[in-house]
Amino acid sequence: MSNQTKTPNRVNFYDDSKHDYRKFWIGREYEHESELIAIDSLLKNKHYSLAMDYGGGYGRVTPKLLEYADKVILVDPSEKQLNFARKKLNNKNVEFRKQETKDSVPADDNSIHLLIMIRVSHHLPDPTAVFKEINRVLKPGGEAIIEIANEAHFINRLRYLKQMKRVPSQPVPIGSIANGKKDDTPFVNHNPRTIAKILDNIGLVEVDKLSVSNLRQQFLKDHFSMKTLLFIEKHLQKSLSAIYFGPSLFLLVKKPIQ
Ligand SMILES: C[S@@+](CC[C@H](N)C(=O)[O-])C[C@H]1O[C@@H](n2cnc3c(N)ncnc32)[C@H](O)[C@@H]1O
């Protein structure tokens, strides 16, 4: 295990009694299903013995991971989320593990066959340390699905273009509590090209990538059925990934066998 410093003793946004992350997903069934579709296409015909849902929260995606792994370790720094997850999943094949130290992945070297990190990059202004940890815990030949909150998505690119600016290479703070307030949980979007460079420097090899939640527009949700939107989504995820179209990118990376 790594020996990084203890997380400061402060309230994680996800532990806050005034905030229930589960409610964020009410009305976001399209985004939820789009993410499950992406996981299915990235993991199709694969099976792993030990998987980790890193920053797994209340276990929203863990049941999908259990379709591809014998055992799943759900890791999260929030005790509140872990308690929700214990109640929701109640499965002997899921182990719950608290992340006690910042930027660490609580697992032994070369021990994990598959790791997923969905909707956590938002909270990592510099994900380098976590990516190094992912590389450390993965077995050689092991894989990770890393979801990236994409600053360079199509609509944002049009916004930048209008202002005659380029998409920043550095992470961009977003959201109402992302105003640099000391001790707040950070919320950022990333430039996927910067992320690709960091992963490459660490030695994690990109195997595949998908563009996810491509039709995340209220207008479309109001005018088309969920079935239609998901049908189109499924068929666009791969092709649109080439131009970083959607607000969320799912990268499948591999730790090479030396
Ligand atoms: C947006 S939720 C995503 C939860 C789950 N992966 C999902 O997609 O539903 C972000 C989760 O990451 C956890 N988290 C926040 N900061 C983190 C960090 N620095 N490292 C790992 N997890 C973190 C939070 O406690 C929270 O449960």
Backbone shape: globular
Strand order of the largest sheet: 3-2-1-4-5-9-8
Low-confidence stretches: 1-10
Second rung of CATH, namely the architecture: 3-Layer(aba) Sandwich
- Residue share in helices? 25-40%
Radius of gyration: 18 Å
Distance between the termini: 21 Å
CATH topology: Rossmann fold
Based on secondary structure, the structural category is: alpha/beta
Name the CATH homologous superfamily: Vaccinia Virus protein VP39
Average pLDDT metric: 93
SSE succession: HHEHEHEEHEHEEHEHHE
Question: What is the makeup of the main sheet?
Answer: 7 strands, mixed
Question: What small-molecule ligands were found?
Answer: S-adenosylmethionine
Give me the count of strands.
Answer: 9
CATH class: Alpha Beta
Q: What is the total domain count? A: 1
Percent of sequence in beta strands: 15-25%
**Helical stretch count?**
9
